[in-house]
Each structure stands twice: as C-alpha cells, then as structure tokens.
Amino acid sequence: MFSAFAKTTAVTGSHRAFHASRAASAKLGVEGLASKTNLNGEKVLIRLDLNVPLDKADGKTITNDKRLRAVVPTLKFLKEQGAKVVIATHIGRPKEEPFPDSMKTKVVQERLSELIDVDVQYVDEVVGDKAAKAASEIAPGGALLLENVRFNKGETKNNADFAEALAKTSGAKLYVNDAFGTAHRAHASTAGVCAHMELSAAGYLMEKELKYLKGAVDVPVQPLAAIIGGAKVSTKVPVIESLLDKCQHIFIGGGMIFTFYRAMGLSVGSSMVEEDLIPLAKDLMDKAKAKGVNFYLPTDVVIADKFDAEANSKVVAVEEIPDGWMGLDIGPASISEFNSTLGTCKTVIWNGPMGVFEFPKFAEGTFSVATALANVTDKGAITIIGGGDSVAAVEKMGLGPKMSHISTGGGASLELLEGKDLPGVAVLSEVEEATKSSWWPF
Hints:
alpha/beta, Rossmann fold, 2 domains, seven-stranded mixed sheet, six-stranded parallel sheet, elongated
C-alpha cells in the first residue's frame, strides 16, 4: 500500500532561495541594551528559568544543572558590565503555604554562585521592604536572588499590582528576560513587569532560541523536515498544521500514529487511539496532499502484548496488528526509510519520541532518530530539538553537542513553531535593523 513510510503525495516544489536583505523589526538583545545605556552601577531585573530537578530523597541536591549553565553567558556579561542584577525565577508549581524548602530558590544559590564566580546573595522574599533593602545593597557586578516568584499568587495571574511591586522592589528600570521556557506564559515577571521598565531586552539564551525557532518557521533552509512524535495527536495538531505550510517532509511517530491509521480504515489492536480526532487526522493528511507535502507514517511497528518493559514483542506491518496487541515503537523498515530521506534535508525539527523509549525494547525508533540527526548535522544540516522527551532522548545518548540547537522550552518552542507570538517576547523592546533574510546565526 505504501513504501517504508506512508506517503500521501510527492513534493512539487524545489529549494527556496532567499537573496535580498530587508528591514526587519527585531527584539533588543542584552548587548544592544549595553550599547544604549551604561550598565555600570545600574540595576537590572532579570527573569531566569532556574527550575532545576532536585533529588527526591533530600529535596535540595541538584541532579541536573543544565538550566543554570544555560544562563551563565548572560549573567557573566551583565557582571562584566558592572550591572547590579536582581534575579527573579521560579522552582516547581507552588500551591499553598507552607511552601517546601525544595521550592525555595536558595537551593540554587550555591551552584549559581560557582558558575558565574559571584557571591550571589539570597533573600527569602519576592517583594517588600526586606527584598528592597537587599536590592539596594547590591554592589556593581553583584547579584541578588529573590525568592520564588510563584509564591505570590499574583505572578501566574499577571496581576498588575504585583508586577508593579516587583519592579519597585528591584529598583530597576532595565529588564532582561532569559527564561525562554516561560516565555509562552503571560505572567507578572515575564510580561507585566515590563510596563514599569524603560528598556526590556532578551538575554543570550532567549536570542538563540528565537534565532533558531523563528528561523525554522520564517525562512528555513530547504528542504525542511519535521519529525513529530508523542502520545497524542491532540497536543500536536496546531504545530502540524503550521508546519504543513513550511515543510517538504513531515514524519509522524509515537502513539499518535494509530489515530491516523484508524483514519485510514486500519485495525490497530489495543493501541492508543483518540477516537474524537480521527476526522481531524484524515483532514491533516488531506491537507498535506493538497499542499504537496510528503506526509510519512510508519509502515511497520513494534508491537507488545501489554504495556510493560518486559512485554512480549514483535515487528509487524501496520496492516497486520492483531487484536489485543499494542504498538509501542516504529519498526526497522520505517527507520531505514526515515534515515534515507533525512539525508537529503537541510533543516530538521524534531518534537516528540517515536515510541515508549523509556522501555529499552521500544527505544530503537527514538534513538535511531537521534543518531540520524547527529549524522545530518555533521553533513551541514541544521537540527533543532524541541520538547522534553526528545531532548531527554538526545541527552541520554550523549548526542546533545552534535545537534545545532536544543530548545530549553517545550511548550514555548511548540507555540513558536506554531507561529504564535509569545507574551514574554512580545513585551521586549524592539529595534529596527537591517537583517539578512535568514535568521541563522552562522
């Protein structure tokens, strides 16, 4: 019925070419901020995403400091400029008091101090007299870590009074957002506070995220491929629809493939299916055909007799899934065709695993994608990894350094790929500059 991956149609277009430079509106970056005003001795309120994972046993040992290391370039730049930095961040999702010590920002104070070679001060208050006094005592090149901004209910509600109090407490008129992972949330510390700032800029991490992800959707280097996986179609519909206007190739994997199979009239055994989305799955395939996009579905899958790491498993064609069995990974023939097509692509976006990669028996599809992307990056392609599970798979294989860009924001990266304006980005100060038609930073 289909070759190694199910194709709805062939691509009719060729590589896009972009030549002319254009005047474009861009967001102010941290270096641009320094060029506009002397930062020496100036207060700067910075929003970071320091929501690090902690050891469950003691609730204070950081098990992965990647988010801390990601913001080091921005913090070191501000330090070198002599700025007085006030850090706002969150840890976890606080509900009601008393808040556990594991959600207090003090847990990152020591490691952050080590990374930026600054004795970062800590205050157990977000807004108020104590925090304001601590902010007033910051030395040039120093930093103060405020308590978890989400301890105040006004944070997630983008409460105007809380946003104003945060600005007043910090004593800052300059703002930097380097928390891409929260940029899709209109919170007081990511959006509302900017109304009280003279200038609001993007940190280095934020700038990098925008360059890669905006580049992928605005002016991609073609051919562009998107690999979309995960358990549910419902969480990925908007990004698939958006990418249909950008991509030449779209590959579908993970549990969502079975909803598409049902839309094709196939039996899927006991595999996961979102029954109410079957018509929408068919509509997406029809749209791909109408737009001349290659839409790939695996033609073989690894199935199991139960959802368990030690389940009995075998490889079957998608037309031959028996009753009582469920698909937990894409099969070897599909992997082979996938790798072959990837080799022709210049830009690849990956969001979502191909199977239940937490179980070794069903990890081959996901890990093969990671390896394939590392290989095409070596050949000069641009590879962008977005989404928690995709990032986890890449890091588990030690292939992170091989990729062009690994996004720090799952939800934020998805919304940016959908073409949405992120609240935490929209409020940043704009600058007019002549830019090349490509966003790529190399």
